[in-house]
Amino acid sequence: MYFEQMQKKVDELKKKKDIIILGIESSCDETSVAIVKNGREVLSNIISTQIDIHTRFGGVVPEVASRNHVMAITNVLDNALSSANLKLKDIDAIAVTYGAGLIGALMVGVSFAKSLSYSLNIPLIAVNHIRGHMCANYITHKDLVPPFIGLIVSGGHTAIVEVVDYIHFNLIGSTLDDAIGEAGDKVARVIGLGYPGGPKIDKCAKQGSYSIKFVKDSLKKSYDSSFSGLKTAIINYVNKLNQKNKEIPVNDICCSFENEAYLPLIEKTVRACKEKGYDKICVAGGVSANSFLRDNLKKSGDKENIKVYFPDFSLCTDNAAMIASMGYFNLLNGVGLSDINLDAVSNIPL
Ligand code: KG4
Ligand code: ZN
Hints:
By secondary structure, this protein is an alpha/beta fold. It has helices at about 1-15, 50-55, 60-85, 105-120, 130-140, 180-190, 195-205, 230-245, 250-275, 290-305, 320-330; strands spanning about 20-25, 30-35, 40-50, 95-100, 125-130, 150-155, 160-165, 170-175, 280-285, 305-310, 335-340. Helix content is about 45%, strand content about 20%. A hairpin with a 5-residue loop joins β7 and β8. α5 packs across α11 (about 320-330), α6 runs antiparallel to α9 and α7 crosses α9. The longest helix has 27 residues, at about 250-275. The protein binds 5'-O-[(R)-(carboxyoxy)(hydroxy)phosphoryl]adenosine (KG4) and zinc ion. The site of 5'-O-[(R)-(carboxyoxy)(hydroxy)phosphoryl]adenosine has 19 residues, from α6 and α7.
């Protein structure tokens, strides 16, 4: 009954000129609430990051993350509303990340979203976090439309996908072990850069040279990737130097890591784009902020007449604007309508 009533509301919303969606994101260590009009216009995007809290532990502690989401989420909602100059009554639907992510962290956002949608009597739309990342590109590039090849690179995922339209994604290749961001964070930890490692590696690599050869890509012809061999080779290299009390060449390690992790992925992404006959590549996820990846993928794309898109830096890492945007496209295409039974799921496929 409730579901049918909400389906009716969705049908009415589709006739409206403007659809205002409130997005909620809490899958890892960012509590975020955003308000987005028509999927592309961000009215507010408030992100409360827990990075300082988790830095002390060298990485995200799931239980600590969940507790901090609980403490932050009401304030983040208030800020999102006041910054957009809107009231709850102005919101047409709620979109929430229900997976993938840390289960306790996801549960905070999902419970909050369910309560809001139920009390406001407006539709609740479930959003896949991995797909949500891609929408950061729709917000950044107002005229960008699918189809294209997507490269999703984050702390939890590394995937080359065919983005057929707003809601249909075909997985072409993924990591067989660590995600690229996760591997970078671990490398950063062993060389003493701390958490989160990606941005620090990005900076240090610019001062270094590609002087250390760690591994060769063993999956050259495939679209799949592997990063744990590279990570382990770097850890062993650092351990040996430590045993001999020798200095760690931090900048050179960072530069070598970037060359050996990113260049094969760039080659695979461009090859996938050519083979599938597309002329656009869109990158998404926290690692899409990386300057080496941005520069080299652009260069490779230029050589093949492929246009390469990256999200605005503010939308690369986790944020609720991309979730609200995905919620909008889900709503228009009859995907994700949920009710009070929506569950958080830690592992969901693309
Ligand atoms: O998308 P995201 O915020 O969270 C997940 O969904 O995983 O991505 C976080 C990841 C972390 O591994 C972080 O180190 C990495 O993105 N990252 C970067 C950069 N900025 C963030 N990696 C490389 N270069 C950067 N500039
Ligand atoms: Zn993410």
